[in-house]
Amino acid sequence: MKTQAQAVIIGGGVVGCSVLYHLAKAGWTDVVLIERAELTSGSTWHAAGGFHTLNGDPNVAKLQQYTVELYREIEALSGVSCGLHLTGGVMLAGTPERMDWLRMAHAKGRYLGMHTEIISAAEAKRLMPLIDESRFVGAMYDPLEGHLDPYGTTHAYAKSAQLKGAEIVLRNRVVDTVQRSDGTWDVVTEQGTIHAQHVVNAGGLWARECGRMAGLELPVLAMEHMYLLTEDMPEVAEVNASTGKEVITALDFEGEIYTRQERGGMLMGTYERAGKPWSETVTPWDFGQDLLEPDLDRIAPSLEVGFEHFPAFARAGIKKIINGPFTFAPDGNPLVGPVRGLRNYWVACGVMAGFSQGGGVGLALANWMIQGDPGFDVWAMDVARYGDWATLATTNARVKENYSRRFRIRFPNEELEAGRPLRTTPLFDRLKADNAVMGESYGLEYPLWFAPRGTEPKDVFSFRRSNAFGPIGEECRTVRERVGVLETSGYAKYEVTGPGAEAFLCRVLAGRMPAQGRITLTPMLNERGKLIGDFTVGRLGPERFLVIGSGPAEQHHMRWFLQHAPASGVRIDPLGQRMQGLSVAGPRARELLQRLVRQDLSTAAFPFLSIAAMDVGPVPAIVGRISFTGDLGYEIWVEPDCQRALFDALWSAGEAFGVGHFGLRALNALRLEKSFGTWAREYRPIYGPVEAGLGRFIRWSRPDFIGADAALAEKASGGALRLVTFKLDARDADAIGDEPIWCNGQVVGWITSGGYAHGSGVSVAMGYVPVALADARDGFEVEVIGERVRAKPLPEPLFDPSGARLRA
């Protein structure tokens, strides 16, 4: 075993071997994979081996599509068969709501280049004769589904990597990872120590234990997962003989089961609701190619439904039951990327769908390590989407919930309950008492909407307009006609100070820095000139800046800040919940706030985009003249122990002006009415600033920021896309995001977010179209739950297009 390497990958499952292959393919040949036993000795060897391209996040779905298409490449290169069975598959809907979900998934596939098809239950029966079509209302067919040999696929990756110069060391457990002062790593193994520039934790079942060697507590948990294999079935032989093909795969959402052919019989697996964790705190190192004791009683309810929906299974003998552990992150997506504060430490774990996602994970991580950027929008997989709040107990509670819901519908207005409430602000109980329906983001509770007094504060889950529609409309009218108060503590807050603060911010942010007492809006770009953040920056002193950004992206953005911070002269302090906020917005916002402050808040004295420290009633605060509602408004920031007093003062002073609550869903409706984009929807790393309509916020006169060359090139070319706002002729359902945009019968773009603009009384959506269509005014449609509705591009925002109210 060598003693020096450019990178060491820990773990010899399909994910670790994929990372090794992609690094070697990209030119990093001085890389070593270390495996404690044999390749595939963790979860990989007992996996059912199924693969598909469907994912709730379209960007992950693209990487899954890449993974499936990659198998031919590694087979040809390595000479090792992946045992690929590209059978196609049906996803079966047992309810109208599930059929709506499939129509939405099919629509997403249109702009991803997938070739799925919505079919009837009778057609599903023709394609998959083992089903009882009377149990289903329809289905979706996907030709890119099937199964493979986990052992062969992993060895195909490994052999391909070795042919490109990579090294694999087996039967050698990593016992420690120690970072040197220069940021490099000593990977201590049973056979000696390797000094490496980079470490990749692809430890699978042991990823948590490997992370602890470096001081990390990664949010992953293994769950027991069972599937059964039947004896040979005459029904299978009949399908094989009549079609000359295998029985296609099937996914039955109501039964929470999946099936595929296995030799002359069938495989049936289930994600049962009574899921059982395995090794909740410590994974034993001596666990190898072992299986767990089957527990048919636990999966019996799912099997009963499965036998009803697939009657041939009820007549078949069970040959074998496989029960093995697989690791999951709390939301079911992988954990990929660099870890904040640990230079050159990377993770690729929690990849429970390794044969759907392993290739895409390997490609994204190799790009990230070599080029400094994954090359794709991988936010849904980024390890930075979790913070320190994702403790062992919280992770375990949420993984159990996610496992039990894996085949259940997640409605766009549905908030999951496991591990909540966890993080709360001082106003949590007060807002609940006022009938708030609470949501959660980045572990923090926040108000979604407020139910009328005397009614239960509860969402009725739906893809269509729900019981919240009327109350949200009232909240929007409160803001547009009088004045509303919103808790804004969920934003990420950073204090940047020191003699090098301005230079640092000018480097990492693409906009102009404000003068003292002023606010600016600025994008943040990566080296490719793509959007990785948008911020509000207020200057509170010569060397003191308050930076406000997306709350869920706090770890993501802090990782970037620290990566580019100078060795001295600047301090970046993430304030988190050490600073709480309230927003006051509406035409009477100034009158309300003026009753509580001594300073003159007139436009002449405190104009739009001003910021200052001042007492608000009895509370010392920082007040910014800005509002995401698009209306006259202020954001007020205080320390946590003052938030309740601030709220009481605002509410008391606001009674004379008809003050009322509004929540995050009303805010979404208000910002759409103003055509304001937001991080993770309109602003993502697949869009440039000109494409997103943010060019006016770029510091073109002094292009010394990260990504400047690429941004200038985009400005010169005009970019490929344009962000457009549409008014939709929708009836009882609005766009929510990821719907295809049609123009003259062709899919030309996609919706990034949508909703109902209550102030204007219309359904509205924002999305990207090719730049050549940016000025077109006719021929557009948006596909909402399988129905194409007329879409009219709006040349200006629905609300206050001149910005007069915002600047009043």
TrEMBL record:
Keywords: Oxidoreductase. PROSITE patterns: PROKAR_LIPOPROTEIN. Residues 372-424 form the FAD dependent oxidoreductase central domain. The keyword Heme does not apply. Residues 722-800 form the Aminomethyltransferase C-terminal domain. Belongs to the GcvT family. This is Glycine cleavage system protein T. It comes from Alsobacter metallidurans.
